[in-house]
Design a protein that fits this description.
Elements: E1 10-14, H1 19-30, E2 34-39, H2 42-54, E3 60-63, H3 69-82, E4 88-91, H4 106-134, E5 137-142, H5 155-175, E6 180-187, H6 209-217, H7 230-237, E7 248-251
Parallel strand pairs: 1-2, 1-4, 2-3, 4-5, 5-6, 6-7
Bound molecules: NADP nicotinamide-adenine-dinucleotide phosphate and D-gluconic acid.
The site of NADP nicotinamide-adenine-dinucleotide phosphate (NAP) has 30 residues, from helix 1, strand 2 and helix 4.
Length: 264
């Protein structure tokens, strides 16, 4: 029987206090993994610990900014001492700044690149030695529609997520011989706090124009939910995907396949 179990595995999901990361971590816990997570702020870690407790999951949380290599190294050492070698890393932590490029500061551009691209590099570099020593590992990078497509106001985010797709392929290329698989998961438009501004009900009670746009661009005719990521993320973390490497699995309701609803 195909093995989707994560019994005995240690899974680190960055930024998993809520949203997509929490859903992925919940799926891993339900499959038997020991879940650990980190956020850059204590209050977010506390919010996450409360959420895991309410789900009946014994998760451990750490305050760690994925762009701070010294803090990341310290966190990985603590996890290895307190929990065990990390078998599964999900680079989920991410930010977005929606600013027209000509109005975006270099500082804002660089911060998005740091969190969404340099962070996954730092995190992956920190966990790879343990995976090599163990002779197995899974690294899953949370990519995006913007790994494939551009749109107004998200230049930094698209550059980061496009780079993350290629970092995924490079980790797969460089470490595949150690039985380490690195793949991406590419959510479509998912209803989380990050996309809440794009779904705000308008003063006249109508749906946000962008909300209506995404519904028309999605064959499934709906926004995704974090729960839609659970199955694909479990597949990529389990032995079931041991010969899948350097792939980005898009979970987008069909957006990337669809030109958009034609006018009636
Ligand atoms: P979210 O609701 O904004 O949550 C982001 C999480 O990342 C928070 O827990 C946040 O906590 C943490 N975080 C942010 N910066 C961090 C840092 N420097 N170090 C450590 N943790 C950090 O995001 P989401 O919508 O669930 O998205 C999760 C991932 O999926 C992101 O990579 C996003 O780009 C990607 N994605 C989202 C969608 C979507 O439609 N929602 C679609 C495709 C891809 P702190 O602020 O306390 O650090
Ligand atoms: C945006 C959205 C998207 C989603 C996601 C799509 O402003 O276009 O935030 O970028 O977050 O990345 O896959």
């Amino acid at each position: 029987m195909v093995n989707f179990s994560l019994e005995g595995k240690v899974a680190l999901v960055t930024g998993a206090a809520y949203g997509i990361g929490l859903a992925i971590a919940q799926a891993y816990a339900e499959a038997g993994a020991k879940v650990v997570f980190n956020c850059s702020r204590q209050e977010t870690v506390d919010r996450g610990l409360k959420a895991y407790k309410e789900l009946g999951i014994d998760a451990k949380g750490y305050v760690c900014d994925v762009t701070d290599e010294a803090s990341v190294k310290d966190m990985i050492a603590k996890i290895e001492a307190e929990v065990g070698t990390i078998d599964i890393l999900v680079n989920n932590a991410g930010i977005i700044k929606r600013i027209p490029m000509t109005e975006m500061s270099v500082e804002d551009f660089e911060r998005v690149i740091d969190v969404d691209l340099v962070g996954p590099f730092i995190m992956s570099k920190a966990v790879l030695p343990g995976m090599i020593k163990k002779g197995a590992g899974k690294i899953i990078n949370v990519c995006s529609m913007m790994s494939e497509l551009g749109r107004e106001t998200v230049s930094a985010y698209a550059a980061a997520k496009g780079g993350l797709k290629m970092l995924t392929r490079n980790i797969a290329s460089e470490y595949g011989e150690y039985n380490i698989q690195c793949n991406g998961i590419g959510p479509g438009y998912i209803a989380t706090e990050q996309t809440a501004p794009l779904r705000e009900i308008q003063p006249d009670g109508s749906r946000h124009p962008f909300d209506q746009f995404i519904i028309a661009k999605t064959p499934a005719a709906r926004w995704g939910t974090p729960d839609d990521l659970k199955g694909p993320a479990l597949f990529l973390a389990s032995e079931a995907s041991d010969f899948v490497n350097g792939h980005v699995l898009y979970v987008d309701g069909g957006i990337l396949a669809y030109i958009g609803k034609q006018p009636k």
